[in-house]
Amino acid sequence: MDLYILGIESSCDDTSAAVLKDDLLLSNVIANQEIHYKYGGVVPELASRAHQQSIIPVVDQAIRQAGITPDQIQLIAFTQGPGLLGSLLVGISFAKAFALAKGIPLVGCDHMQAHVLAHFIRKPNQEYRVPSFPFLCLTVSGGHTQIVRVNDYDSLEVIGRTIDDAAGEAFDKAAKIMGLPYPGGPIIDHRAHRGNPVAFSFAKPMITGLNFSFSGLKTSFLYFLRDRLKENPFFINEHLDDLCASIQRTIIEILMDKLKKAVEDTGIKEVAIAGGVSANSGLREALNLAGREYGWNVFIPELAFTTDNAAMIAINGYFKYKKGNYSSQDVTPYARSRMR
């Protein structure tokens, strides 16, 4: 019998709802919060208020687009964490109320695990190509940078993580230093196409093993610009495209060097990327290039599944449901990822 799943994602500043029939995507609606742009970053209090305003209209639209009624929903999956607690509480409260009113089970999902499992979402009338277990997934976002060994849908092991800042944060901080608006990562990616990626060099961290570090790179970039601006106050404007291309190349090289080492250490050549930074065109190109050069079987998510979305929560809930892994009505959110 078909299982209709309603997914809810509210971990940060996007309110999203999606409907899946088993693993088949029927709808995926996302409401963005543009109010944060003028503050240069997400303001938690404003984010939670915006979620409260958006959650019901977004869920209603997702159910309508799926072509079903609310009474046909048999499972509700929601983001339990990590994320902003105020934002998470909005999604969790709605999920609890919906499940209680309809008498259906609910499943709490880890946001980072869901990013990885987004590779298993099946879309209508499209080729269904998914990684085989075990596979490696480089999960990169504004708040997290991890290399995950995925042994099964519910068996994920973090074998490398950032010891300070995330790659997405490095993109945004570099953009802010150059005076670019928030969110800066996509702007750097866009301008990098017009620049020379080897125009400038920045310090790379010397971290052993599979862990990452980006705080030193941010400091190197800041001091580099500080010194150049003393000589030429118009340096950034005159070299903006080259700066974007060079900082993007450096971040991608750091990511890819560790991913290559992970493949060497584990012998696993099924390799995927996930998370918001997986939308970066330079990273996608670098992964495809490495796949051809080293014989990896590469999996890159659709752009719609790179950013925070409820479809990835719904597919995570689907696999949890099949294992009988439900949540109770007293479930609470958590701010930090529980993936280890």
List its traits.
340 residues; alpha/beta; Nucleotidyltransferase, domain 5; 5-stranded mixed sheet; 9 helices; 10 strands; 19% strand; globular
What is the helix tally? 9
Spans of at least 5 consecutive residues whose pLDDT stays below 50 are none
Count of DSSP E strands? 10
Q: How does the overall form come out from the CA principal axes?
A: globular
Which structural class do the helices and strands define?
alpha/beta
How is the CATH topology of the largest domain named? Nucleotidyltransferase, domain 5
Beta-strand content bin: 15-25%
How many structurally independent domains?
2
- CA(first)-CA(last) distance: 34 Å
Roughly what percent helix? 40-55%
| Helix and strand element order | EEEHEHEHEEEHHHHEHEH
Give an overview of the whole structure.
This protein has 340 residues and is an alpha/beta fold. The chain has 2 domains: 4-123 and 305-322, 2-Layer Sandwich (Nucleotidyltransferase, domain 5); 135-301, Nucleotidyltransferase, domain 5 (2-Layer Sandwich), CATH 3.30.420.40. It is built from 9 helices and 10 strands. It has helices at 44-66, 85-102, 111-117, 167-177, 184-192, 215-231, 235-266, 281-294, 310-322, and strands at 4-9, 14-21, 24-32, 75-81, 106-110, 135-140, 145-152, 155-161, 270-274, 297-299. Strands 3-2-1-4-5 form a 5-stranded mixed β-sheet, sandwiched between helices. The chain has a 5-stranded mixed β-sheet with strand order 8-7-6-9-10, sandwiched between helices. The longest helix is centred in the last third of the chain and has 32 residues, at 235-266. The protein is globular. The two termini are 34 Å apart.
